Amino acid sequence: MATENLSAVLYSVNDLRLENRAVPQAQKNEVLLRMDKVGICGSDVHYWVNGRIGDFVVTKPMVLGHEAAGVVHEVGEGVTHLKPGDRVAIEPGVPCRSCDYCKGGRYNLCLDIVFCATPPYDGNLARYYTHAADFCYKLPDHMTMEEGALLEPLSVAVHACRRAGVTIGQKILICGAGPIGLVCLLTAKAMGASSVIITDISESRLEVAKTLGADHTLLVGQEDAETLSKQVAGKLGQPSDVTIECSGAESSIRLAIFGTKSGGVVVLVGLGPAEIKVPIVNAAVREVDIRGIFRYANCYPTALQLVASGRVNVKPLITHRFSLEETVKAFETARTGAGGAIKVMISCSD
Ligand code: NAD
Ligand code: ZN
């Protein structure tokens, strides 16, 4: 029986502590997991630095982490599809299952969703953690636990590309080459995009994007969005069929609209300031559809298949690795981007 459960607990702004908590027990239809790999997401860092994201405020100590994979340690009553020793990716949001959104398949919009490391719910950056068994996906033997953890951001990309209607032969603009922009690049390519241009304000991130298969890159500076949109069209040979905005910056959302062809689609993935100025009439009269996305629904199985089949290789995203004991150092690395950090991975098992 495990007794020690070292956990990374955020108390308040800049106060992230490692402490020993009780090992939870698997309830009905849950599994107790021995956590293995947990990636640090921008939102984890944001809670650490600001203590809140919009209306979600850290008011009591909260375990961080939600991009995770673990090994089944014990199964609760009623669990039949998993057994101790199974390696699983953990979909971090468990919805109510009974509201109209849940029943309609858009469970990411459920008002009662319990999502790891979104206040007031604990995440899984710990040695042990319990989770709804049906939100755990068994990994094939040839997939690594790190790949399992990366199914979380990859699922965001799958959802964004689905909402965008990405399909074979399209020309696509992706704004922002952070981890999310990069998984959108990989996914759009896997879904058949013929040409992808990706933007960033950082040359080094664009270099990474090139190695991951970007056909074109665009380093953006102080130019206005309309000027930049002409450069995008120049490189793609036309304005984009679909644009996936992954920075949240106002200037970038402006480019997303100007850079998309009439009748095209802009998907807003990046979440920046709550209110911004955008060329809305330009979008309206050119019938450019602007769609938001929030996390994902029914995307984990697809993300898993993309990796298992070899169509998407997420491994190059991981630039740094730390142990659970080194969590604060890992967060510091993710925050500063030191050493070209893209995805920082924490190992909870050694
Ligand atoms: P990140 O901060 O690592 O990446 C953002 C990238 O955008 C950086 O590389 C940055 O240099 C670049 N950038 C900044 N200003 C720019 C500009 N004007 N033009 C082009 N690029 C610019 O973050 P991430 O982890 O990759 O996440 C990206 C965004 O997606 C964040 O806003 C995050 O909150 C959001 N997000 C949304 C969802 C959702 O469900 N909607 C899910 C996950 C992440
Ligand atoms: Zn619901």
From TrEMBL:
Please give one Gene Ontology molecular function term for this protein: zinc ion binding
User: Which Gene3D superfamilies is this protein grouped with?
Assistant: Medium-chain alcohol dehydrogenases, catalytic domain, NAD(P)-binding Rossmann-like Domain
User: What is its cofactor?
Assistant: Zn(2+)
Q: SMART domains from the xrefs?
A: PKS_ER (SM00829)
GO BP term, example:
sorbitol catabolic process
User: Which InterPro entries is this protein grouped with?
Assistant: ADH-like_C, ADH-like_N, ADH_Zn_CS, ER, GroES-like_sf, NAD(P)-bd_dom_sf, SDH-like
The UniProt record lists the Enoyl reductase (ER) domain at 11-346
Q: Which of UniProt's keywords are assigned here?
A: Metal-binding, NAD, Oxidoreductase, Zinc
Check the record and name the Pfam families matching this protein: ADH_N (PF08240), ADH_zinc_N (PF00107)
**Highest taxon of the lineage:** Eukaryota
State the family named in the UniProt similarity comment for this chain: Belongs to the zinc-containing alcohol dehydrogenase family.
What is the protein name for this chain?
Sorbitol dehydrogenase
Q: Which organism is it from?
A: Daphnia galeata
